[in-house]
Amino acid sequence: MQIKRPLCLVCGIFALLVLVAVRLAPPPAEPYTGLDREEVRITGVVTNKQLRSFSGGSTVLELTVHDLSDFSVRGFSGPCPLPSGVILQIADLHNEPAIGATITAEGSLRCYQHATNPGEFDAVEYYRIQRVDFAMRSGYILGNAPPRFGLRESMYQWRRCFEIILERAFPQEEAGILKAMLLGDKTSLSEDTRKLYQTSGILHVLAISGLHISILGLMLYRLLKRLYVPAFLAAPVCLTFILLFSMLIGGGISPTRAIFMFALKILGDVLGRTYDMLTAVTL
Q: Residue 2: its pLDDT value, please?
């Protein structure tokens, strides 16, 4: 008997095995719970950053730091495992490191909390998926080595320019909604607006999803095809454009997944193969 979708079957079996392994695996250790509110020092690479405003009017710069090479606790001489990642909040907006920079910083360690009720948001699981073990509040940077390649920082600066344009062109509430829809930045959304969209069941329109990626990528791809650009040249141009757009909106799991699906669609067209949705989703 010939299998119509062999790749779909193989990927489906693999996904099932991964699901079973995750369910049977013991819960990961949390070695930093006993260090809550301790003063710590880290050295790592800035992989993302964003400005976060609070209801009191204060604004902090939130840095995501990965690839840590050093971690120490003030007054603690025992061995400390290196964290996978840290979210660092600093109030000094004039000392802003670039994305890709290697920084040394100090701050107060704050552990994330598990959900206390069924269905409640579990901060520990959410940040664990992003390879972040804890947060650092009231942080300040001691050393800053600039990145070797500044493409991601350039895209971040373009994003800030677009945000400033929206803030100047629209009132605060409308600017926050447009920044969420166009740039994936939800930090300017008020709590009332977020709850309004959530209770209406349309909160997903404020997230950059596969629909945005598909519309932008396919529009550019079909435009190039109409201009008689060969598929093997149009494909890398579209993929480069989509990758730059992903950097512009700060990356994330959803855009990365959408880019992978879009790349499969374009690759199938270049190779003259039919795009099979079931195979693509399983892969």
A: 64
